[in-house]
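Form 12-C: Joint structure prediction
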Amino acid sequence: MSAVRKDYIRPVDFKHGRVDMTHGGGGRAMAQLIEELFAQAFANEWLAQGNDNALFAPPAGRMVIATDSHVVSPLFFPGGDIGCLSVHGTINDVAMAGARPLYLAASFILEEGFPLGDLRRIVESMAAASRDAGVPVITGDTKVVEQGKGDGVFITTTGVGVVPPGLHISGDRAQPGDAILVSGTIGDHGVAIMSLRENLSFETTIESDTAALHGLIAAMVAAVPAIRCLRDPTRGGLGTTLNEFARQSGAGMLIRESAIPVRPQVNAACEFLGLDPLYVANEGKLIAICPREDAEHLLAVMRAHPLGTDAAIIGEVIEDPHRFVQMDTAFGGRRIVDWLTGEQLPRIC
Amino acid sequence: MCLAIPARVVELLPDSLGTIELSGVRKRISLELVDGIAVGDYVIVHVGYALQKLVPHEAERTLALFAQASGAEAE
Amino acid sequence: MKYIDEFRDGDLARGIAARIGAEARTDRSYHLMEFCGGHTHAISRYGIKDLLPPNVQMIHGPGCPVCVLPIGRIDNAIELATEHAAIVCTYADTIRVPASGGLSLMKAKARGADIRMIYSAADALKIAQDNPQREVVFFAIGFETTTPPTAIVIRQAQALGLTNFSVFCNHVLTPAAITHILESPEVRELGTVPLDGFIGPAHVSTVIGSQPYEYFVEEYQRPVVIAGFEPLDVMQAILMLVRQLNDGRAEVENEFTRAVTREGNQKAKSLVAEVFELRPSFEWRGLGEVPYSALRIKEAYASFDAERRFGIVYRPVADNKACECGAILRGVKKPTDCKVFGTVCTPENPIGSCMVSSEGACAAHYTYGRFKDVAIKAAEAVVE
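Section 2 - Result
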């Protein structure tokens, strides 16, 4: 019989193992999971210390904090998964203030029975996204809930960043005359997700556009510090975000349908289901509002960046006490792009 | 009512099923309600069923009528 | 997208609009009803009203199967899930319709009822096959376009020998509804609602053909033009109706020749006739009891009829007194004539059927057109 090493500890079984209540219990099993999975994947000096917190020196300048919970289903989809989505989403929220994202915190709520192999896939995806973005995950938390009380895994990420001086970016700063820009094609993420729903099942090569936009934003604010508003049109899509800006700023908007970039496949999928691409979610796009005189320059800067190659000027902010978002249709008439009513659902009629 | 779209049949399958395509998006639907469908035909699809075959020369004729109505204005 | 994009061309639209403007006589007005909710939706979504001269008015008809579904029938559907523990499969359109007791299918689902959204009747059949120990009910709604798929799955269920699948049938018929409108006192006797012509439904007509409309033009002397689903189709149909009215003609014309023939889809019609029969009367929300306007499942397929299987009792529920949907569905009033439009009654909190479905007259106007009700400084598009 071969000798067993004295200090042998059986490693976490990622192949066949599943989350159980001990992984959230605070004891050895949890510590082992944290060490073998999270600390190893994220691999940075903070997590290596093994504290419940992370120390950092405050940067000079105004700080920004943002948080986001991720409950997407399915967990894995063309172009990404809940892991990288959670990293990109919070980096983007921080960056939308014009900030340089610095650090992330991540908390996990795991459902009892969730396969550890899937968890590792998700965490490794988060780690890769974090590395590529240059924004480390420096602290976190793990809890486990009983089977049936979670959807596999819920992830909440919180991010902090610092805003360069001279920037004042906020949803209430749009003024009549300002130009409205979008960084690329809309509806990709929502359609990619929907294609996986069992009863909708259509085949498409559309992938989620999930991406960290802080690099694009850094180039944008460097070129045009006078940018007024930035936001990523996630749930509720472009239509909802424009309405949010309109309401916050007390102004109206007029956009042109023919200027809005949409992939043919996204259009087709929306036709099948009776959906409007204007309301379909995006995870790697942003809407920018800037003074009219800076619009062409900003557009050029966006198009020069890999995440903004399809950027376009889609309209302008106008005076309107009713705060309607109006659209000139490709057809020639005019309609409003209203707030979404509930969740957009496919229709037969 | 009745959201239906014209799509091209790209594959015929057993049990009166088929695959249609619209701008690169493919979907499996039932061809039970229409006879004599060949790959390349266009069908009108509603709730996962083809309801009718689209007649291409009629589509052309309709577009020509539009052009006529529209261009008849000597502007 | 072939056969779609070409039918949405803006330049052609402007040309046809100019033609309509030129040919519409200035000494009269034209009141045209688009029966089909899909056309209502297209008119609103593409802003077609903007392209028409002021004396050509569009009236929105009741061709929205969700809008005309009585509250009591939705109560029955919820009951199937809550009281009979059935898996109720429904198209997404009905999920948010408010029913009695502050419930909707969606709210009932939130409370634990097993209600599942499907895209196709075939999905309901599959759910029945996958859950042999549960009762599965398909909540079938829709006009003649949506009925043939239901007929198919009932026959398939029979062929498969399924014992846990049934259909709660709420299929309704287009010609009966058109007759009802034309027979309404406001139109027939009082003449208070001028209704000069109809845009006939697109996809219903692919199934039933153009022949059933010949009765209307004969009996009521009003032209019908069957129009395709795209905005150019609708505009062309409007032009054709204006021409008929100018000429004093009352004929059935077919603009949607690429998909509609006089006979329609014979195979689909036969399948429907084999499985369904006419109900002597059926309540339409907003229109009251309409004779021979709906279908029920024949005796031969009784075991697949959820109403018989579960002993469903229909209890009519009156609409809110302030609701003007009845008048709006008949084309007698406009959404803005309703006291509660846009205030108490919104898409988030719909009081009546016209606001419930995205193609109901009130929902369409609220979502796409209400900005025209208020005076806004028109914006010049500066950005090119």
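Section 3 - Comments
Chain B has one domain: 5-71. Strands of chain B lie at 5-13, 17-22, 25-30, 42-46, 49-53.
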